[in-house]
Specification:
By secondary structure, the chain is mainly beta. It has 1 helix and 11 strands. The strands form 2 sheets. Strands 1, 3, 4, 5, 10 and 11 form a 6-stranded antiparallel sheet that branches. The chain is globular.
Length: 138
Amino acid sequence: MLHLTATDTDDLSILSMQMQDAVIRFSDIRYMARERRFALVANRFAWDALPVKTRRRTGITFNAVMAAKRSGPKDLAPGTILSLLAIIFVARDGLSGTVTLSFAGGHKFALDVECVDVLLDDLGPAWSTEHTPGHEGP
């Protein structure tokens, strides 16, 4: 089980690698403006467990979020499944900047953050899967 904290770009790139190909129900993504928090629950492919193919229920919390914007196809149904491709941070001034969550199909969430402050926690046991996510080109 993973319990990771990201406080800089290098940490976030490790967290992004572990979350690549996670599948997330749109209704499991929340921006809590008052708490300055953005959170989601995903079924991540456990890259850290290879060669055993498993998925785990995982929660991620982004703290110090000043604003969150979604772009991509409009009018998503709550049950829509999104596949996470990457989490990237671009610095603006000192520690502040934008964390972007990029999903297959052109969906993106851009989080305006004071600093990188991200927590990832596996929430329960793993389950087997027969498929390893692939990334084949055209």
